[in-house]
Amino acid sequence: MSGGASSGDQSSLREAVAAELAAATARLAEPERQILELREHRRLSHAQIAGELELDDDAVAELIARARLELRARLRGSEPEADAGCAERRRALIALARRQDGELLAAGEDDWVREHMAGCPPCERAHAAMYEASACYRAATQP
Ligand SMILES: [Zn+2]
Asked: How much is the average pLDDT of 118-143?
């Protein structure tokens, strides 16, 4: 950015982003809305979320990934891409959520998911979509 925008422009932009986010999150299922609040707003670690929601670590990472994909689809007025066409979707989503959040991956998972994405366009798109959803959520809810 050039830095030319006035603070008034920035605050109305933030309001617009916040309104968009509120409309999109209102259409999410409760577990997805809840986990995005814990992760993107309160910035809890996956382990903290696992404790809070009484889920195991894989379930937390998968739900974060699916919630981000769902949010991104809602923001765009579309449906999240189905898992069809990827036999390793769950494994990939878990690894992608952990990478994105700086969480520890099981040995070999980082290399595996990079290679997997190179040959799996739906998972490569999911990777980008998850970052976009997270960035939007954080932009709208930062203090
Ligand atoms: Zn895949």
From this structure: 92
CA atoms 55, 26, 124, 99: torsion sign? negative
pTM value? 0.89
Confidence of residue 138 (pLDDT cuts 50, 70, 90): very high
Domain boundaries, the chain: 7-141
Ligand 1 centroid–CA 6 distance in Å is 43
The pLDDT mean for the chain works out to 91
What distance in angstroms lies between residue 16's CA and the mean position of ligand 1's atoms?
33
Cβ atoms of residues 35 and 29 within 8 Å: no
Q: How far is the CA of 114 from the centre of ligand 1 (A)?
A: 10
Helices (H), the chain: 7-25, 30-36, 46-53, 57-75, 89-100, 109-119, 121-141
pLDDT above 70 for 5: no
**Per-position DSSP letters for 70-97, written without gaps between them:** HHHHHHTTSPPPPSTT-TTHHHHHHHHH
CA proximity to 33, closest of 140, 137, 142 = 137
